[in-house]
Amino acid sequence: MNNQPASPDLHGRTALVTGASRGIGRAVAVALAQAGARCILVARTQGGLEQTDDLIRQHAKQDAVLLPLDLLDGERLDTLGPSIALQEGGLDILVHCAGELGLLSPLPHIRPQDMERALHAGPGVTWRLIRTLAPLLERSQAGRAVFLTDRHARQPAPFWGMVAASRAAQDAIVRTWAQELPPHSALRINLFEPGMVATRLRRLAMPALDMASLTTPQAIAPQIIRLCLPGPQPQGCYVQAVPEPELHA
């Protein structure tokens, strides 16, 4: 008897991944494509998107749609949903991996413009993504939306106040959206906490940390893919990859 789990099957489904030029976003995009999804990749840099596209061609034998876009550009972001509807006909999956670290600083030392940018890049972008993509995801027969978060949304730590405020506000927006759906909705919306992963942002935040000891983005991606599959899924949950040890940053 073969007890191996079945490979995820996302053929015929269209997925959008933000932050797809590196790290977890890149790994998720490649995994989605390997499962058969048609991928729309969003990030600021054309070069990074092309590198992800090269990996998708290598591992999934298909092309991705590349959308160089600064998510802080609200007017352009607002056109994303209508553009996808016109070009692709619909959207089934959103995985929001894009994010900024912000400043690690005592709260009294944070400048107003830096806090404003953090709230724009975190909950502000999340709200605009929901606003422009919700009509498409709600029309899908099995819409899925996954938003990356981290422990500081629930456990603020000294000097991480900017991150904590941004993530907590994002999480509240995502949970509210999930609660606003009608009972019969096929859309499933979840938060995913990847834990300590060897990414560029983690290196910036903790330069003394041994990156080789951390989980890789490629190891995390399958857990996110499981939240994108049709079939029974949780709703509005905070899904953790592996609980993190307490760190004093």
TrEMBL record:
Per the UniProt entry, the signal peptide is: none
Superkingdom in the source lineage: Bacteria
- On whether Oxidoreductase is a keyword of this UniProt record, the answer is yes
MF (Gene Ontology) = oxidoreductase activity
Q: What is its EC number?
A: 1.-.-.-
Q: Which Pfam families match?
A: adh_short
Q: Which UniProt keywords apply?
A: Oxidoreductase
The entry's family comment says: Belongs to the short-chain dehydrogenases/reductases (SDR) family.
Indicate what this protein is called per its UniProt record. Putative oxidoreductase YciK
